[in-house]
Design goal:
alpha/beta; Metallo-beta-lactamase, Chain A; seven-stranded mixed sheet; six-stranded mixed sheet; 5 helices
Amino acid sequence: MRIALRILGLVAALLIIAAVAVIAVTFLGRQSITDGFETNGVHIVKDGIVSVAVVAVAQGEVALIDAGNDKSGQAILAELSRRQLGPDAVTAILLTHGHPDHTGAIAMFPKAQVMALEAEVALVEGRTAARGPLPRLFPARPTGVNVTPLQDGVTVTVGETQIGVFAVPGHTAGSAAYLVNGVLLLGDAADTASDGEVKGAPWIFSDSQAEDRASLVGLDQRLLRDGVDVTAIVFAHSGVLTKGLAPLDAFAQKNQSR
């Protein structure tokens, strides 16, 4: 019995080491999150391994793109305090997707309307589980969050600010990108490498890398077709690129035939 337990313990330890190694490799080579970056009314707040965008939408009002990993919302609250605002100033939270490192502090902002693409609502509300290789290990649990569904291609007006909504499925079924004042926020649909090259979503956390690549190519084509002015691209787990749409163009050119 002792030998069997030791073997089971060794196997468990090896699995944990392997999982940690895979996650470490996944995050290596990324640009660091650009804490405090600000342009066109969009301010990036680093919350541990993830970033949150705080968007000034009206006098004394802000919207959040994602709600971070920290349930206490300390980094977000500190940014609000810097603006001499409190939690009630957050009138909307637009989620790029429903993984818990992007929904952590929702409860800290009870006056905020929570929005996500319709295909993502069940995941955010905890009525369905995530499907990526690692996220699928965690069962669905009700979150108590009520989500207003959004549709691909709509423009949402929050306060005095318009926010474009784009479906980019692949990382999750209802992953969304948002365009605010020329700033394109991609969530986990993409990352930027240390050399500034756009990378697709990592396989270990994603439903489908192939669908993710196709979504990013399609998004680039839509933005080019519509002549949308993009001044910066923001990634949830890595840095900010300020070369317009060019980095996404390069990704699309490299991947459109895959």
